[in-house]
Amino acid sequence: MLKITNLTATVDDGAKIILNGLSLTVPKGEVHAIMGPNGAGKSTLSYVLTGRDGYDVTDGTVTLNGEDLLEMEPEERAAKGLFLSFQYPLEIPGVPTLTFLRTAMNAQLKARGEGPISAPDFMKKARAIGKQLKMTPEMLRRPLNVGFSGGEKKRMEIFQMMMLEPSFLVMDETDSGLDVDALRIVADGVNALRSPDRGMLIITHYQRLLDYIVPDAVHVLSGGQIKASGGADLAKTLEKEGYDAYV
């Protein structure tokens, strides 16, 4: 599904290499986790995958379902089913949450050659998913993320993810700043989207999220490269021993 081969990426007009020959494959239907120390390149990987400005790919390839992801604009990548859950979700004053999300859904549907979702169908789906994530109607009526706590912002990211139903999810430290109750709610939403046709890449510092979202594979990212890979138990080893062996 997602195949990364020898990916090298720089910032500051090539002055600093962040990803240095990274290779990784996430098959369809699997959940993979990436762990690593600060500055390893974890967030940079998510930005490169989704096409954020300021990151230059100097070598390597990235394909999603066999298509060249690096040749696409960010909106094209989204229309192909790529979704990024931000570590620090943005607030957009004056833009109602549901208006924003319905506009995004219809833009993606149009890019795929499909018709728009009707207002009644959209609201029915939004209410059902909001109830599942324990989101009040008042939360959904607010401008996007405005006045939300850190946990509410992360829950809103999962809400958007469940509404859009992307084919590949990239979660950049979604567990950051969550208490135990919020972590469980977020994890339940992510687990509800696990399917044989969907892949996920979870970027995290801590093993605790992986107690709730058990990955098929765990990879250690350090110095811009995958240094080790293993099963879910690797995360527990990293939690106990740290990253010294890979730095």
From TrEMBL:
Keyword Nucleotide-binding: yes
One GO MF term: ATP hydrolysis activity
Pfam family, one: ABC_tran
Record key words, sorted: ATP-binding, Nucleotide-binding
Superkingdom as given in the UniProt entry: Bacteria
Membrane-spanning segments: none
Domain ABC transporter span(s) in chain numbering: 2-247
InterPro entries: AAA+_ATPase, ABC_transporter-like_ATP-bd, FeS-cluster_ATPase_SufC, P-loop_NTPase
Family under the similarity heading: Belongs to the ABC transporter superfamily. Ycf16 family.
Name listed for the protein in its UniProt record: ABC transporter ATP-binding protein
Species whose genome carries this gene: Algimonas arctica
